[in-house]
Write a structure and sequence with these properties.
The protein is of the alpha/beta class and 305 residues long. It has nine helices and eight strands. It binds adenosine monophosphate and manganese (II) ion (3 copies).
């Protein structure tokens, strides 16, 4: 069984429609997929409808990825098994979308001082109604020739401290955890190694997330080495968190694919331990932690940058 609990559609900054994403998951032989768009649940019903109408052999987990502020860092909290129709959750996510729009307006204003003509209309057009993210700005800046790649555009304009960066004003960790719990879900610390924290700060983050009521952390992300996975799992054990897995897929690239590189050893306690997971035929397959088989083991090797 293959499971991937972190992925994006074009309802936020992914490239694929919800329908194409679930089709791709099936093609990649994934059995269980969470869609976790940035501060929105708009893709979930569309994906569920497509799975049902096409009778796809895929179990969809309703998810969301909430941006939070923690000291000067932007920390992402994934909510899994949330009720996507919860009116309170929808109102709360709407407030994050409002923050995104305000931030985008300010980003566009700051960028005009760096020879980027007023770009908000073009960015809004690119986003086409999706959650407005820095990725949309990055795509626009690459399109108009301001940088040669997405990575360079972040380095030059959009990363913390750069010209187009607007210090974040998201909700705090505990609020995001509360929102997820109120909507019936579990809260997962996303990609703990992507925040460039040193060991002391990473430990502090995991501790404070656990104290805020967090349930798990992503132990397996692509490009995390077996040693790094062990280190995160060690911190999980210290703070009584479970383990989750997620590719954070946005679009097919040489380095990222749905379900790839998510192998975990069988001593971890997975967040899906008590979930009812089903195969196509509806047979319960329970919660075997040895979920990602040896076929994935080769893929847990570090990938080239
Ligand atoms: P936002 O939530 O609007 O701050 O946008 C953050 C998103 O930007 C992340 O979810 C990533 O998808 C993307 N991102 C961040 N850093 C980079 C980078 N160096 N290269 C490409 N995409 C990035
Ligand atoms: Mn993203
Ligand atoms: Mn993220
Ligand atoms: Mn993500």
């Amino acid at each position: 069984m293959k499971i991937d609990l972190h992925s994006h559609t074009f309802c936020s900054d992914g490239i694929l429609s919800p329908q194409d994403l679930v089709e791709r998951a099936v093609a990649q032989k994934i059995n269980v997929l969470a869609i976790t768009d940035h501060d929105t649940v708009a893709g979930l019903a569309i994906a569920a409808e497509h799975i049902a109408s096409q009778q796809l052999p895929l179990q969809l987990i309703d998810g969301v990825e909430i941006s939070t502020s923690w000291y000067e860092f932007e920390i992402h909290i994934v909510g899994l098994q949330i009720n996507p129709n919860d009116p309170e959750l929808l109102a709360r996510l709407e407030s994050q979308q409002q923050r995104r729009l305000e931030r985008a307006t300010e980003m566009a204003r700051r960028l005009t001082k760096f020879q980027v003509p007023d770009c908000l209309p073009a960015v809004l057009e690119l986003a086409n109604g999706a959650a407005l993210t820095r990725t949309h700005f990055a795509r626009h800046l690459v399109n108009i020739g301001k940088a040669s790649s997405m990575n360079n555009v972040f380095k030059k304009y959009l990363a913390r401290g750069k010209a187009g960066y607007v210090p974040n004003n998201w909700v705090d960790l505990a609020t995001a955890v509360q929102w997820i719990h109120d909507a019936g879900g579990v809260a997962v610390l996303a990609h703990p190694l992507k925040y460039n924290l040193n060991g002391k700060w990473l430990t502090k983050l995991m501790r404070e997330f656990a104290l805020a009521g967090g349930d798990a952390a992503e132990v397996a992300s692509p490009q995390q080495t077996p040693v790094q996975k062990r280190e995160i799992w060690r911190l999980c054990q210290l703070f009584e968190l479970k383990a989750s897995v997620g590719s954070d897929f946005h679009q097919p690239t040489q380095w990222n694919e749905l379900g790839r590189g998510l192998y975990m050893t069988d001593d971890i306690i997975p967040i899906w331990q008590n979930w009812q997971l089903h195969t196509v035929a509806g047979t319960e397959i329970g919660s075997d932690p040895k979920i990602n088989t040896t076929e994935a083991a080769a893929e847990s090797l570090p990938l080239p940058q």
